[in-house]
Amino acid sequence: MTTTSRYRAAARMITAIGVVSLVAACAGNGGGAPAGGGTPAGGGYPEQNITFVVPFSAGGPTDTVTRMIAEPMAAKLGGKIVVQNVEGAGGTVGAGEVARAEPTGYTVLMHHIGMSTAPALYQNLGYKPLESFDMVGLVTEVPMTIVARKDFEPKTLQELVTYVKANAGKVTLANAGIGAASHLCGLLFQTAAGVKLQEVPYEGTGPALTDLVGGQVDFMCDQTTNTSGQIAAGEVKAYAVTTPERVKSLPDLPTTTEAGLPKLQVSVWHGLYVPKGTPPDVVQKLTEALKTALADQKVIDQMAKLGTAPVPAENATPQAHRAKLEEQLGTWAKVIADAGVKAS
What we know:
By secondary structure, this protein is α/β, with parallel strands linked by helices. The protein has helices spanning 3-28, 61-77, 92-100, 114-121, 129-132, 157-166, 181-193, 205-213, 224-233, 280-294, 297-305, 318-339; strands at residues 50-54, 81-85, 107-111, 133-149, 172-175, 198-201, 219-223, 236-241, 267-275. Strands 1, 2, 3, 4, 5, 6, 7, 8 and 9 form a nine-stranded mixed sheet that branches. It is globular and about 65 Å long. The termini are far apart. Residues 1-42 have low confidence and may be disordered.
């Protein structure tokens, strides 16, 4: 079985597990709807199932990270966590649902860097990142990789830059949709390389990577959590990792600085959010559970295999999370304005 086949099978399995968990959760609630609002959080929190909303497709990088931490967090909280995928519009559909949910602590959002880019991309967003949510804590920062179909002509990152400049009208740059991490990284690549390319948006990272492996598109920039398997199996050609240091799981892959494109530096940070007004004691319990999960050796090992690691404990806090979001909102507002990109 190829790595792509294993990826698809894993995604189907993860989705199936999510469905089974959802059914079990509903049964535990007497057959009612899954947790997500209604019952106020009290001193006995959690008193019902907690829904973790992932605003992207099942089997994708953010979904994978969420499912890694859900089990140890649930064990610490003494309850059940149901992972629900609510995809669409670069993560804004799921984020909007959580922003409008009752602030009881039973609806939690896992989002990535897209939380900081959405205000610059979407004119009618429907929520404000700093005003519509309370932060629970940062989870991880995932490096990005620049990968291409395995028979793509350029052999190094410098050769890639030279090639795309000479063939800008023909080269295709895939991404998982406007506002997705792969789209943002692609924007930075074009800025750093001084070129404008033909972008091919997909509805999710899975389809984009599948077409890359199949040779339907030329190259893309995506998270190590999604590309490590394909790189290791030789199903794609890898040029660089977009962080200051090399990734332990991909030791032979140079950094963008080493490869001659130092202006391309980006990682995809993830964080947990709850609706604004969630009781502070509930937020504290979620933060404590997050810290426990990030210290879990199984989680550490799983993340290492995907080229990432949990954030330090001091960053898994509401304060560090808010500071990160504030800084990133300013950074990406300028990048996106300079690129002249807007989403409907």
